[in-house]
Amino acid sequence: MYINMDKKETNLDNLNEIYHRIREIFSNVKPQKELSIDELVQLYSHDDDFLKDLHYINQSLIDINNILIPINELNKEYSCFFSIKLMIDYLINNVELFIVNLSFIENLLVNFFHLIHLKLLNHSNYEKDYDEFFSYLEKQKEFFYTKIHDYDGDFQELIIEINNLLW
User: Fold this and answer.
1) Window from 74-78, 125-129, 161-165 with minimum mean pLDDT
2) Angle at the Cα of 62 (from 56 to 63), degrees rounded to 5?
3) pLDDT for res 76
4) What is the distance of C-alpha 126 from the center of its chain?
5) pLDDT tens for residues 31-53?
6) What is the per-residue pLDDT across 83-93, written as a single tens digit (0 to 9) for each?
7) What is the dihedral of CA 7, 72, 22, 63, to 10 degrees?
8) Within the chain, what is the greatest distance between any pair of CA atoms?
9) Handedness of CA 147, 145, 28, 43 (dihedral sign)
10) 102 vs 124: CA distance, rounded Å
C-alpha cells in the first residue's frame, strides 16, 4: 500500500532523524572488553552523557509511537514496534541490562527502521520482507522473555485464575 507522503512528510522526516541519532548513540557506546560488567555498569551509571542518551532513546520510543499511530498504512508495523518498545522499555531502565543487551536492542531498532524504509519505498516484495521481519521479531521476543526478562511474580494469582477459567 502506498503511503501519502504529503501529509506525513514531517513525521517521517522526524522518524529519519530519530533513526540517525539512535545509530549515533549506539556507535558511541563502546563497552571496553577489559572491564567487567560491574565496572561497565559503574562507569556508565555515572556518565551524564550516557544517561542523557538513554533518556533520548526512551523519549524517542514515545515519539516513534506517536508518529506511527495515526498512519493507518503502518498498522502492522506499529504492532511490531509496540512489542519492540515493551522490550526496550524493560531494558532501558536498568543500565546493566541495557549494556549487556546493547546489540540486541540496536538490532531490534535497526531492523525495524529498515522495515519501515522498505515500506516507504513501496518495495515490490514488501509482504515477504514483513513476514521475514515478523518471524525475526517473534524469535527475538522468545529470546527476550525466556533469557532476559525476569518475571517478578506480579499477577500470579490472576494468571492462575484465568488459566482455571480457560481450561
Assistant:
1) 161-165
2) 80
3) 94
4) 21
5) 777 888 899 999 999 999 999 99
6) 999 999 999 99
7) 80
8) 53
9) negative
10) 32
Closest CA to 104 of 139, 70, 75: 139
Q: Grid coordinates standing for 35? A: 572491564
* Dihedral (CA of 108, 109, 110, 116) sign: positive
Question: What's the 3-state SS for the chain?
Answer: CCCCHHHHHHHHHHHHHHHHHHHHHHHHCCCCCCCCHHHHHHHHHCCHHHHHHHHHHHHHHHHHHHHHCCCHHHHHHHHHHHHHHHHHHHHHCCHHHHHHCHHHHHHHHHHHHHHHHHHHCCCCCHHHHHHHHHHHHHHHHHHHHHHHCCCCCCCHHHHHHHHHHHC
Amino acid symbol at 84: I
Q: How far is CA 62 from the centre of its chain?
A: 11
Q: Which residue's C-alpha cell is 519501515?
A: 116
pLDDT in tens, 95-132: 999 999 999 999 999 999 999 999 988 889 999 999 99
As a whole number of angstroms, the distance between CA 163 and CA 52 comes to 42
| Domain ranges for the chain | 5-166
Backbone angles phi, psi at 35, to 5 degrees: -95, 145
